[in-house]
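Why do we care about 3D structure at all? Because function follows from shape, and shape follows, mostly, from sequence. That is the central idea of this module. The next example makes it concrete: a single protein chain, its amino acid sequence, and then its structure expressed as tokens.
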Amino acid sequence: MAYVSISGKQAVMYYVTKSDLVLGDGIVTLTDDTWYLIDAVASSSEFPSGLGVGDIFKSKASSATITPATGDNYYTLTLTEKCKGDLSTSGSKGTIEVTDSCSEGNVQYIIDGFTDISGSFTSFMKLSRTDGLKAGVKEFLKRFFKLVDDNAAETYTVTSKTDNEVILMTLLDERNVTANDEEVWMIYSVHLTELTMDKPLKGVQNFDISFALGQDVKPSIYTRTVV
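And the structure:
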């Protein structure tokens, strides 16, 4: 098939949650067709070659054969689709100026070896008259606010504000579902740095977030064949 430009509406962003840490034991095999985050790598690792701590990968679609060795520790990941909105991601390379008398009047640079990734996504506040805030919204809000749930029957559930990173995975074209199609994913973990929730008199309540790259996950472009 020819290479073509596509609309951003074909992209789907997922919020990712981690299981408790799983310690490889050389016995338990990974579950089929499941996403994993590597936490530690054994000296004789059974994880895919070239992957290391902080990398995310997906197991085989069927008959999974990866059996993490003792020392191969990992998290199982669960993806929750976030309602579509505008997602922006930008990357920039750090530079060092090396201009001298041999540059023939040009200002010259070399790359300093560091990449800065940041971005933002825009969506809308989701509320229910009977259930309050949508669960996915709460996951983002608790990076900025303490959450207090009161059932009016003396049961209070308090969730403390957290600075934990958020793992985001974006499938660039959700239409790739046929065998031999190639899925392309953009993967990274981020710190949520700014939240905007406008309440316009004549307009929709928005839910806009800015982010900067975190440390939990190594950013990657992940391509996978559909089977």
